[in-house]
């Protein structure tokens, strides 16, 4: 296999939260991301799923150094990003881009759509006339070129998201972080944008880090999927493996909780119900972070944190007692 | 058996700077006691607006016509007094974002008690407080007597939603309208909340309207399903029929656009919902429908029984052959 | 592959409004919908026209006595007669004097407003964007400045600068308009800074700013191309507040005799109100009422215009109900 496009090793990000208690100031640490490692190859899509507090969004931001990692290494095309000088980093930004979740907030409402798409070209001081490139990009994402002089509020959510994709493609990147790119869109529009992303990937040889909470979309588009909980990766493996042979109790609960559009299945299936809420990342549980809600937690789980290794399932699982009970999910 | 909620020819329009938006263009339906009606639609379908309109929550720029009856009480055009009596006692609504629905400066138990006292005039404050704790227990909040004394920000998203449900069912309403109640919640929490709603309607016999864009949620929870598009109901039927033998091209398109097991290309519905400032004549879906003909541009199609569901499509019987 | 993309092209574009409406036209529409704002704009326009076209719009000179001993017992003529708004103790037409006075007050208001907003916007935006210690420092300074009683500070500053010889040559005599403008601007930019800082802090968190940073945009670019254009609404409000504040401050200063006063050849709204103090006991009500009402109308108009502009440019968008 050729060299990986992105290599993340032991990435950790802690946020400090200050709060006042009387006259004293208390500093608490939010362990948003703890010791996360993953690799993305050329033309590959790695899906990152998790619920709130899982840290998946922070991973996406850290990988592009939009947020500074606390420790760990992020190598992009072999070059270490952590600690890189600002000037050099700015140059590398041509290669790695991001598409945001909210199509209504990710475009400057005062700028025309064409200006937004051309902005990366302006910032990176690409010479020449940009309007041709803008027209080209609009067509590439399935919009009409003469819409360049329109404003974001004139477009629907799905169309704005396509504009966001066009903007991310302007500088011909090789890697794009997609942060919940279709979550805010209508279901029938999601399909169009997902198709677009896949088409662009095969056309342009892009690598994606696809961050989402919608498991069915992630499964559809990803080659590899990593499941995160409270800042740690619980399980990672090829998409099909994970969905059909999930071994971590959290992954199983997650899959079991997703309602499937099949009324017969929904009424028959066995559902794993997790109790309570996700604990706070300020004070994560000792040992395995999932143990407070895990249906099969034992003493060992509180004392020893399970390492993310292959225990015979064919892919790495961070659990002392990985289950092989298949989750009754799909019948479509 | 009389329906808990009966809606006839409901129309809702808004006056905006750019013109009049016709959000709901004549819908009819009933909701029976104890059943869950899933209302499915995307942006601009009017699914939320119709119920906000019935509840009188839409503000002055909205014009509501038609009829909506809870029991025998007519809600369209009702006086503010009537609406205040009905809201919270006969009919209640829960929303997507529980944080904005809860008052941050009052304790949670007090807010539930307030709901009780507003409608049950022979209840004392002590009784209301006790009942509030019971309600918090019913919706599955652990240690309800302690948590009743806490404030909204001390609860997680799922817990807040349970509090909202407690407030909504406090006076045993005939109809509970849930507008995207789990969209903002994590998947594992969503499962819990849906289970609460299901349990309550079985125990209390409440008619539930579940508004959502998530077909999985509908498959799980609904007895009957109503699909809305551009302010009209385009298909309606029991949940199994809708998923197994949908007749309307939009319903079919919706189901086919969901990611399935394979990795082959998805089938989106081309185009986007129409501009409700100038809704197209005839069937609003025709611009995106592969089977559209000239006939579709004529009159607004009405719901007609075709196979196992009612469908608003003039070509439904012809297209029966193409499944 | 190109085929499928081409077909998605026509499909995805369906639904875009046929006529392009720029944000400016939308803003204009919204403004026109606001009755108070439109009326205020018209009234202000009329006032400005009258003031700008003086002496054509005035009926008599600023210092001209129109008293004719045969017509009335004393120089204080009643309104609606020869003099539309009556005359003062020297027989001078109040209507004309109000116009001349308004000119001075408006000039002070305008220039003070512009200078305060210029300084305040830059400082506030900078503080909001940078955050951290710098933001704290700037904000504490403005907090201190705002905590001091405005009038007392003005008076003291005036007194001090008056006596500093080099200051008067640069800023002007303490009774000049220029002096008043500079004095008010120097102490007036803090409020603007605060407003702008708040707005910038909010905008900074919006995703399109993050998107710009992800593209490698430098801080000045983010500030001038993204933050400030989106903060225009608040800046408009800040401007109108500054103008009204300046006009009021000038009136207050003049009332106590510390404002601009270049002798009998000029007057301001504040001076007119001050002069009317003596007219109250004998009952010459018009000298108090007309300048006072005019002052209130002017302030209200500018305020409504400011609100109208803000709502037009940054409307409180209701959540799209799906």
Describe, in short, the structure shown.
The complex is a heterotrimer of chains A (332), B (323) and C (322). Chain B is α/β, with parallel strands linked by helices and 323 residues long.
Question: What does this 3D model show about the protein?
Answer:
The complex is a heterotrimer of chains A (332), B (323) and C (322). By secondary structure, chain A is α/β, with parallel strands linked by helices. Chain A is 30% helix and 23% strand. In chain A, the strands form three sheets. A six-stranded mixed β-sheet of chain A has the order 6-7-8-3-9-10, with helices on both faces. Chain A has a four-stranded antiparallel β-sheet with strand order 2-1-4-5. A two-stranded antiparallel ribbon of chain A has the order 11-12. Chain B has an eight-stranded mixed β-sheet, with helices on both faces. In chain B, a hairpin with a 2-residue loop joins β9 (224-229) and β10. Helix content of chain B is 33%, strand content 23%. Chain C has 322 residues and is mostly helical. Chain C is 69% helix and 0% strand. In chain C, α3 crosses α12, α4 crosses α11 and α11 (269-275) packs antiparallel against α12 (286-313). Chain C is globular and about 80 Å long. The model of chain C is unreliable at 1-11 and 318-322 (pLDDT under 50). Classes of the chains: A alpha/beta (332), B alpha/beta (323), C mainly alpha (322).
Spatial strand sequence of the major β-sheet of chain A: 6-7-8-3-9-10
- Residue stretches of chain B low in confidence (pLDDT < 50, at least 5 long) are none
**What is the mean pLDDT of chain B?**
90
Give the topology string of chain A: H per helix, E per strand. Answer: EEEHEEHEHHHEHEHEEHHHHEE
Let me know the number of strands of chain A.
Answer: 12
Question: How much strand content do the residues of chain B show?
Answer: 15-25%
Distance between the termini of chain B: 35 Å
Overall mean pLDDT of chain A stands at 89
Largest interface: A-B, 43 and 44 residues
Structural class of chain B: alpha/beta
Q: What is the radius of gyration of chain A? A: 21 Å
The 3D shape of chain B can be described as: globular
